[in-house]
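User: I'm curious whether this sequence folds into something compact or stays loose and floppy. Could you predict its structure so I can see for myself?
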Amino acid sequence: MKKATITMKKSASGATEAKSGDSPSRLIDARIKELGDWRGEMLARVRTLIRQAEPEVVEEWKWRGVPVWEHAGIICTGETYKSVVKMTFAKGASLEDPSRLFNSSLEGNTRRAIDFHEGDKIDEKALKALIRAAAALNNSARAKKSKSA
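Assistant: Here's the prediction. I'll summarize afterward.
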């Protein structure tokens, strides 16, 4: 089943608007290009690491312009702000984080996030392990649901 998608365009005021048409992957490409600074580079790097860690990941575009990566459920989002690129794991509180990558949204019962600032180095090995663990958690939750159904 194909999901509805949207495209981005610049309005006269310079704000990004959406209209139906493009794939989520193209929208993420456009967001990276639109940022045009370290945030775009960081989002692109995070995206590459997600794809390397979980080759079957599905890219989505939700909540008025948030890149989302899914595999048997949401793995994480990639939000961009003025001074941070935030990678939020939907079930981060349930994941082991031996490398202590999570540095934001630590008080919640469900989500956990990693805030990347300009100049930050990514522990690629640890981040990929976290992404794989999130996908595995989604798979195990889906398997439990199908057994009980």
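Summary: Residues 37 and 118 are 10 Å apart (CA to CA). The longest strand covers residues 74-80.
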